[in-house]
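Homework-ish question, so no full write-ups if that breaks the rules, but can someone show me the predicted structure for this set?
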Amino acid sequence: MHLDHRLNQSSEFIADLTVCQARLSHNAAFPWLLLIPKIDNVTEIIHLSSPDQHLLMDEIALISKILQDLFIPDKINIATLGNVVPQLHIHVIARYQSDAAWPNPVWNTVNQEYSETDLQARVELIRQHIQFYFQ
Amino acid sequence: MHLDHRLNQSSEFIADLTVCQARLSHNAAFPWLLLIPKIDNVTEIIHLSSPDQHLLMDEIALISKILQDLFIPDKINIATLGNVVPQLHIHVIARYQSDAAWPNPVWNTVNQEYSETDLQARVELIRQHIQFYFQ
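A: Not a homework solution, just the prediction itself:
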């Protein structure tokens, strides 16, 4: 799997699912995951086969449920934009009425850093929940 | 089907699909469609059944293909946010490197009005393409 260097540098590997790699955004201001289909040269959902589109939806739902369970957000934001990084990637973000960007979308707003300990702890927490659902 | 008054006032009915109603955003700055599941009290994709989630993905792909065919965009942006209007609605937007918000997301950027003639012409064009694919 080719991974765009900007996606690689701005997020942390969590787990490989059936179609996507799940990663945690390095931006600690929001519980923010990325789903990146492990298929080269794909920039749009319509480049995926119909079965892969359905599997992608299953993985979006899986990650949404995990964010719901772990972080009890007020809203889940799901988006694929790709205007800056064309490689297909889907944002799944837990939002709160109390968060730093509410009610606006998160892009180009606040950026906070995780400590290395907090980053690894959150990755491990989400990884365990993915394993629980995914097996 | 209950339709939030803000969605109703900011967009125009195009067609009823299997799961969603397709509507055209009144913002003429972007070719911008909305898919709104015709199921009451749904604010998250994970509130839909798994079969309905797959049908929703099919309808997102259908609308994406139609935007691709008709408007030949540089990128398609797909998102469900719902921070302001909780009723589940999915944005499917044709984006250009030359558009007024590129490369940023479209929300809270430019708002242009259609003339009534242009609005109805665009609705009719998209409706015909939906009928072509959907039958």
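Now go work out the reasoning yourself. Hint: Residues 32 and 93 of chain B are 4 Å apart (CA to CA).
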